[in-house]
Design a protein that fits this description.
Blueprint (H helix, E strand, L loop, with lengths): L5 E10 L2 E11 L4 E5 L6 H9 L6 E6 L2 E2 L5 H6 L2 E3 L12 H10 L16 H13 L15 H14 L4 E5 L7 H12 L6 E5 L3 H7 L2 E6 L2 E7 H6 L1 H8 L2
Parallel strand pairs: 3-8, 3-9, 6-7, 7-8
Antiparallel strand pairs: 1-2, 1-4, 4-5, 9-10
Length: 247
Amino acid sequence: MTPHALEIKNLNKAFGGLSVTQNVSLTIRPGERRLVIGPNGAGKTTLFNQISGDIRPNSGHIYLFGTDVTHLAPYRRAHSGLSRTYQIITLFTGDTLEHNITLGLIGLRPSRWQMWRPLSYYGDLTTEARRILDTVGLLHLATHPISDIAYGEKRRVELAMALAQKPRVLLLDEPLAGLSNTERSQVKSLIASISRETAVIMIEHDMDTALDLAETVTLLNYGRVIVDGDRDSVIADERTREVYLGV
């Protein structure tokens, strides 16, 4: 029997006595498209941070393809097939697009980056970085510094970095935030084109766009799972309308 891509069991996290996630349990199938919604402060990003290893839960377990990764460091989870983007873009702004992607690829190698080695030492990865930039339509900007490109292009670079890791589970934390209509359409198309070998779990407030991409939806409120299931039934649920849609 094929294991779940991601399984979360009774996850709890508290900060200063305030519970941010409370007994959260979810299962994500391989290749699934899951949308996580909820009002501000519902615990969505905290949940992502626990899945990626950026923070540790107080209790509960996280399984990635059947392996307990609850206590593994973020880079170990990346090596196991987990990748993510963040609400706030995390790129080396003074470096080029090509070098940003190359550094991400180096981080996945068993022999990690050595600061005294020039990036030209990793010629094969530079070639791969350029190929990845081409898939998101940014090859023509490969040698430009991140600081010179538009915000929407930075979002595409961050998505490219996440995809460069060839993840089996990809977490996208508000990938459409702050984008123009044109940029939103471009990023949406990129997300829609992600291989079904990758399960995609997305936090997003642009509901019209996000629901086009989602098959299943989880509603969080005050750190708890309120509604969870297929897209249409969750959106039609009275609790969703009350907690999130405000009707």
